[in-house]
Amino acid sequence: MVIYLDNANTTKPDPEVIKVMLEYLEEKYGTPGGEFGHIFDEEAREAIEEAREKIAKEINASPDEIIFVSDETEADNLAIKGTAWAKEKGKVLTSKIERKAILNTVKRLEDWGFDTYEVNVDREGFINLEDLQSNLKDTILFATHLGNFEIGTIQDIKAISEIVHDKGALLYLDANHAFGKVKIDVKKLDVDLMSITAHLIHGPKGIAALYIRDGVKLKPLLDGDVRERGIRPGMINVPAIAGFGKAVELINYDDAKRMAKLRDKLIDLLLSIPDTKLNGPRGDKRLPNNVNVSFAYVEGESILLHCDLRGLVFSTGSACYSQELLPSHVIRAIGGSFEDAHGSVRLSLSKWTTEDEIVKAYEIIKDVVEKLREISIYGGKG
Amino acid sequence: MIKINVIGKECPIPLNEFRKALRKAKVGEIIEIVGTHELSKGEIALAADETGQEILEIDEKDGVWRIVVKKVR
How far apart are CA B53 and CA A93, in angstroms? Predict the structure, then answer.
């Protein structure tokens, strides 16, 4: 039996989600039509609006403020490019530790003449508010995250939104990794745009939602029909949306509390391995399902491959592009060395992770790290 | 027999290629991997051992190593 600790990459769909989706694949296979749609159109429309209401209620938004998109990358692109295009000129800020979809989307805006800047973070991954404040002149948008995808840092969004709004800029929040684990109220956080995805809360892949606060203007990425208010035209993925709605209905914050306890246990166990350091903060300022540690003298990719062969799966911070290993930009941005970045691994829990799995995962990792250090060329202590 | 050539490739590519071959191989099938990255030689032997496979040969000539593994489980 494989121990799956890669839930920040994607989660296993809940059986209840699959059951709902099957209904919209096998029986109710319509797509929402106009005012005079037939029964299949109506069933599809009802499913979509029901899911939209559930999602809106969960984040204290109005259903009219929710747009369905294909995934978090599309949400990032729509929020960032759409806002910038609507504003026509100005500066767009992000932070150095965002997902590549945000970093690259912001960078792309330079092609249209926008200025961009990546705000610094501290050693635990918290956004440097002074750096943010001092770069807000002419800024139209700050794109950042609630919970960091790699090291789990939970940002002080209330403080960030006050600073950003004080200068008249908009705030886009990538809440994908926090949603379902951290209670979100868009009004209390005072965000203008926010993305959440289904596949990180035991929902299906290929569906996400973008919250657009009433009154915020943005231009669509695609031109087409009037579906999703014309902001995201095109065919609607009804089964996925129905599944997303079900996944939201199944959110239980007691799961997050239980995950946080297991997270802390796993962190303590892993830190008992010599020359191991934690990346990101501890306690309530860390996503309840995130563990990220760096092991000295060994590469994260090697640990991952050996653990995979032994039935334990997780991720590393490095990204393998064209057979070249790039060190994690997040670990580098918080001041980690190249070795820290290459030796980092991310283990992410789900509501189904058990204590036995946590202990077993630690035992496998400890054994793999010790054996790799014995043959390490980086001065392992063997 | 599955033959893999990772000459000139560095860590973790050789181990990753071995892992893929091990997944693809049927029980009883032989995997031969040749490469030059010294650390990977140790890592592949370790991975074969960890997963309970039978290492038939490990040799090295002119900086090129060769590992032959029989998948037994």
Answer: 52
Domains (range + CATH), chain B: 2-70 (3.30.110.40)
Given the structure tokens 């005079």, which residue do they identify?
A36
Q: What is the pTM for the complete model shown? A: 0.93
Q: Is A320 one of the annotated active-site residues of the chain?
A: yes
ipTM value greater than 0.95: no
Of A302, A323, A325, the CB nearest to B15: A302
Homologous superfamily (CATH) for A252-375: Aspartate Aminotransferase, domain 1 (3.90.1150.10)
Q: How far is CA A334 from CA A96, A124, A338, in A?
A: 9, 6, 12
Provide, as residue numbers in chain A, all residues whose Cβ is less than 8 Å from the Cβ of B43: 302, 306, 372, 375
How high is the pLDDT of residue B12? 87
pLDDT at position B67: 97
- Residues contacting A283, CB < 8 A, separation 6+: none
- Phi, psi (rounded to 5 degrees) for B19: -60, -45
| Percentage with pLDDT > 90 across chain A | 87
Pairing of strands B2-6, A324-326: unpaired
User: Which residues in chain A are contacts of B33 at CB distance < 8 A?
Assistant: none
Q: How far apart are CA B22 and CA B46, in angstroms?
A: 13
CATH number for the segment(s) A15-249: 3.40.640.10
Largest CA distance in chain B: 32
